[in-house]
Amino acid sequence: MSWFIEHLHRDGTVIARVPLQGSRCRIGRALDNDLVLDDAHVAAHHAELIVGEAGTAELVDLGTRNGVARQKGRRATRLDVSDEQPLRIGQSLIRVRSSTWSLPPELPLQTRWIWPWALLALLAVLGHSAWDVWLRDLGEKSPPYLNLLAGSAIAVAIWSGLYALLGRLISGNERFFSHLLIACCGYLIAVLVDRVLELLAFASGWLWPLQISRFVLILVVALIVRTHLRLADPRHWPTLRWAVGVVAVGAALVPLAQLWISERRFTQIQTLSGLEHPAVRLAKPVTVEQFGAQAQQLKARADAARKREGNTDAAEFEED
Question: How far is CA 173 from CA 124, 163, 177, 185, 234, in A?
Fold first, then answer.
């Protein structure tokens, strides 16, 4: 049976591997240790690994300020070593391994072709962009389709390239076409969700699908970014997950709070702004008389609200 101590990088790769000579191994910042850690938070002689005759191992703190820990912030003086879970000494990570422990099977090589699906998704994005421009074309002169589509393709490529660069810097795998597929599918999903909410608002005659559409789209974008980051940096994902959640919540709450402070309401949407085919309408039709009565009721409420605002302004003017 042989024992080894490994000094790990933050991403889990091995910086140094030291075989255990005898039954003890000292770890610290001093040069006379068996494993030297160049870490200001590690004591000169910080810890000692002790291997028992029964094949057990124990990491013992040597009376230092920071001790040893399995997880950050959970300081201990002694740790039993029974698996390959990384252990923390100061800001450094180490791993103790035995030659008798079983290894996980090798990972398969990436054999799936992602690029055809990524290019197909990109064509779908460009097709939707061209369709949208064509529907909005009401002028005498045709819009520059090629420039608009080239701009859309460049924007998606830059978005995917940035995440591919992040993956290259952190994990060594850029996976550009995987990120391109994520970006294009995310765009199409966002378009589909927005369209479904618009149809639901028209079909039901309710405003709430339009009022929540912005927040739903923020959630969709957050999930897209989450997928990008998890692919680019799978080892550090638990930390990035909280960052994405905080940014998504802030993107939803800050505009909402600003609108409430300025206008005392949570949405700008007060009426339906688009018409769809009557066949998708689910709400019961309203007669002209009913529509006129509802309009009169709405006018009365608007006049009362305007009168209250006028009285308030007049009172404030008299006070001034």
Answer: 26, 10, 11, 21, 11
Give the span between the Cα atoms of 11 and 171, in whole angstroms.
7
Q: Cα dihedral sign for 115, 121, 124, 128?
A: negative
Range scoring the smallest mean pLDDT among 85-94, 166-175, 211-220, 311-320: 311-320
Strands of the 35-36 sheet, one edge to the other: 35-36, 24-28, 47-51, 57-61, 78-81
For residues 213-224, average pLDDT: 91
* CA separation for the pair 26, 35 (Å, rounded): 7
pLDDT at residue 197, rounded to an integer: 92
DSSP H helix total and E strand total for the chain: 7, 11
Overall size of the chain counted in residues: 320
Instruction: Report yes or no on whether pTM surpasses 0.85.
Output: no
Return the structure tokens found at 280: 């998708």
Which pLDDT belongs to residue 114?
A: 87
In this structure, how many other beta carbons lie within 10 angstroms of the beta carbon of residue 189?
13
How far apart are alpha carbons 173 and 288 in whole angstroms?
64
- Count Cβ atoms below 10 Å from residue 42 Cβ, excluding itself: 22
